[in-house]
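Practice problem: DUF2285 domain-containing protein
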Amino acid sequence: MSRPDPMPVADLAPTEPSVTDYDRAHAPTYLRLLDAATEGASWEDACQIVLGIDPDREPERAASAHRSHLERARWLTEHGYRDLLKGS
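Answer key — structure tokens:
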């Protein structure tokens, strides 16, 4: 299954204390991960479909990429959105 997000994802999401260009570019990816988590999708399915990483072929990379991107998505909803609203 192909991903609608044409941008490849990094192995780990950013951890900077402000919104990055990567965050802006991957906002749809973050939203899709949050939706998947809310709907109770398995992390493996979300990783395969949203991030384009096969958890059967690359289990460690898939788990860390999913974890870091979901954590970043949650950070954006709690803190980073302020930067987005300011247009920084």
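Discussion: The chain is about 60% helix and 0% strand. Students who identified this feature from the tokens alone can consider the problem solved.
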